[in-house]
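tool=predict chain=A
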Amino acid sequence: MTTIIIGAGASGLACAVRLKQNAPHCSVTILERMPQPGKKILATGNGRCNLSNINADHCSEVTGFFNALGLVTRADSEGRIYPYSNQASTVVDILTEKCRELGVKIITDCTVTDIDRSLNVITDKGTFTADHIVIAAGGKAQKSLGSDGSGYGLLKSLGHSITPLFPALVQLTSSSKYPRILKGHRVKCNMTIQLDGTSVKQEYGEVLFTDYGLSGIVTMNLSDIVSKIFAEKEPKKCHAVLDLIPEMQINELEEYLRKFGNLRGILGTALSDIMEKQSEGDSKKTARIAKNWKLIITGTKGFDFAQITHGGADRKEFCRYQSKLVKGVYACGEILDRQFACGGYNLNFAWYSGIKTADEITSLYKGI
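tool=predict ok
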């Protein structure tokens, strides 16, 4: 049995290792466009590799897979799982070393240009023929790390549908002056995205003010809505509405202001001063603004800054990870139309889908 895996990212590496574990005598080759495998993994979790989350589906199977390779993990207070070393390079090293040990061939600087229905993979380094092809080429997010969107074209050439693609888990841009004034400040608040004045989604967590607009986990988790709206020919007016003090009601804030005169003891000097300036010193207006602070949103930072791609290969055309259209073709990881929130959930899915793809291939091979 010969398997070609396109992409040496999270799902591709996990798939290769599991394939050789399941069927040691099979031939497994990974074709990677970049000069080295796992480049995007190295950037995850701010270089620490947030590889899963204790609340993610199939987390125990993912961590069990890594523990069996000798990778020790630990979770933080929010359930995010990291390698014990807190270094993403440890994860890449463990996977690539296991590939070498098991006999997986990794060909780097190799660009796949086409796949035909006879399972021939055409590349700039020649043509490879396989019994099974796994497309694990990632999405369009962060092209510099390897995800250039070319995998979608390969699937389309085989007849597969690709749902609309948008940058997701990405920062938001704003024309309001206040994010620039507050650059570097962080607040824990409720953020709501409003479109033409209608609230469409809300989430609580940390917001980071920047010179271009807003960042932070809450911003990332709400960004796919903004991406979709600004992809339209005539996008709706978009605002991020921040409840800066969600633990207190307006009447409580008004009482606080009557007693102390400002919100510095809650929000700090910079934010409090902005509230006062906008309300012209009216304490009732100050309280209302603090609970309903509107910032104009002009778009997102785009695919170059996005952590993941929203959209992808239509999962209705796959039986789990195997194509219903072309026998012997599989897809796993970010290239599929499956997205999750920040916190290790997307990387967890990449590992898990790669592992399960390998299990599907070898169960067929073994006649199970």
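The mean pLDDT is 96. DSSP finds twelve helices and 21 strands in the chain.
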